[in-house]
User: Which sequence fits this backbone?
């Protein structure tokens, strides 16, 4: 290879040395090419799963086509309230992240990144931390941090950066918003007669869960760093200008001092609403302790947004911008609810869980429960919805085999969280924020799936 600056080579362009990627990066590149060519739009994926569930119900459970149609239709709107709740969660949390106060904090964190390595590590660690607090907060923070860091480090592969943020979502079922763990810790749950109220000390704060969380938290960012291409020509470089995400002040051709204009620009109006929400939350936590549900989480985000936005105009613009992140989500969730209806009413989900239970022993039941939950999550990407289908099957099995119910509860939780790395549904709002498509990141998140699957499986057998 010729060296620039020697002899008569002054007119030759300097060559960029080719650096060979490591094995993990090469495997990730293969997955990325497959996803780019074969992975369809997230809505197409949802329809594809609907067809599979429909046909499986007919051939496996012997349900008639009309039965499956009815199961689908009856289930389609069964999660309408939950759909509205999680849409509100994304809208309010995204709007909160657009406030000047929160933006400054996130900007300060992003400014610390100077290299692709620091960029990927920061985005992954931040997403993991936020996901332990709340699954929705984790997705929003991941998307926004990826954009901010992408502006600061223009030579980072933006697809890998966003995929690293989404990989942080892996950990949410081991955190404070874990659906199965919170469900059985609530007095009056449907399994109380069998297992009583199971405190979070036996689920979220068990040795099993703590070990999984700690190992994934402190190793996954470095795994995602390994998949970043070393050669700049192999990277997906994005123009930082395209990642600008600010709320601009409204431009008016004519400024007036009419009372309506004064109220819209007043700091007092949103503060009144924020103080009302804050008063309710303080009373809620005083009387009920640290009891969290989706409605409470949503009120926390809304209250914070009201208190931090400068005026009604700014608040309206923030909400309008954040609504754009949930458009496809609104379209797809009824179809996944319909799939859940078909799997549950036809008995298909029960047959799947029964199969894994039949091949289990007291030692391997948590592992097989985890794997079956991961498979079911492809069709039912809802922690609460999946627990409603799988819980009535695995709890009696655990009692019969002498396995602690808390273990299978967390096995279902981690299975639900695990295969989100290849299930495009929850990536939709994050991708809307980041400005990418599902095919851009899912090849890379497959590496996170394989790695975390090994870690979780080992822990399910040991603890």
Assistant:
């Amino acid at each position: 290879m010729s060296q620039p600056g020697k002899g008569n080579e002054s007119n030759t362009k300097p060559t960029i040395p080719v650096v060979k990627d490591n094995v993990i990066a090469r495997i990730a590149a293969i997955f990325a090419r497959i996803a780019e060519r074969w992975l369809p739009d997230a809505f197409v994926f949802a329809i594809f799963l609907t067809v599979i569930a429909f046909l499986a119900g007919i051939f496996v459970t012997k349900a008639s086509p009309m039965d499956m149609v009815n199961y689908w239709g009856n289930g389609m709107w069964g999660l309408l309230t939950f759909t509205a709740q999680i849409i509100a969660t994304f809208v309010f949390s995204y709007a909160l992240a657009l406030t000047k106060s929160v933006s400054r904090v996130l900007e300060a964190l992003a400014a610390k990144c100077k290299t692709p390595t620091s960029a990927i590590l920061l985005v992954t660690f931040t997403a993991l931390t936020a996901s332990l607090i709340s699954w929705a907060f984790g997705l929003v923070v991941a998307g926004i941090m990826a954009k901010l860091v992408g502006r600061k480090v223009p030579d980072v592969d933006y697809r890998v950066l966003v995929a690293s943020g989404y990989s942080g979502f892996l950990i949410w079922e081991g955190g404070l918003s874990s659906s199965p763990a919170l469900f059985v810790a609530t007095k009056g749950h449907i399994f109380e007669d069998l297992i009583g109220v199971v405190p979070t000390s036996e689920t979220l704060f068990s040795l099993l869960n703590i070990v999984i969380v700690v190992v994934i938290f402190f190793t996954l960012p470095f795994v995602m760093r390994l998949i970043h291409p070393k050669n700049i020509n192999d990277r997906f470089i994005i123009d930082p200008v395209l990642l600008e995400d600010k709320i601009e002040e409204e431009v008016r051709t004519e400024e007036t001092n009419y009372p309506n204009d004064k109220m819209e620009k007043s700091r007092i109006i949103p503060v009144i609403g924020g103080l009302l929400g804050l008063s309710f939350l303080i009373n809620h936590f005083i009387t009920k302790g640290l009891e969290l549900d989706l409605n409470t989480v949503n009120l926390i985000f809304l209250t914070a947004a009201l208190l931090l936005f400068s005026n009604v105009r700014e608040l309206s613009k923030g909400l309008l911008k954040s609504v754009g992140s949930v458009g496809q989500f609104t379209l797809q969730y009824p179809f996944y609810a319909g799939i859940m209806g078909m799997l549950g009413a036809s008995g298909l989900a029960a047959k799947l869980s029964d199969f894994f239970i039949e091949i289990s022993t007291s030692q391997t039941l948590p592992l097989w429960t985890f794997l079956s939950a991961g498979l079911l999550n492809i069709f039912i990407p809802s922690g609460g919805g999946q627990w409603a289908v799988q819980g009535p099957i695995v709890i009696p099995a655990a009692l019969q085999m002498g396995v602690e119910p808390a273990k299978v509860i967390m096995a279902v939780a981690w299975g639900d969280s695990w295969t989100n790395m290849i299930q495009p549904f929850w990536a939709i709002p994050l991708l809307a924020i980041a400005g990418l498509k599902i095919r851009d990141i899912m090849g890379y998140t497959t590496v996170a799936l394989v790695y975390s699957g090994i870690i979780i499986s080992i822990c399910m057998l040991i603890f």
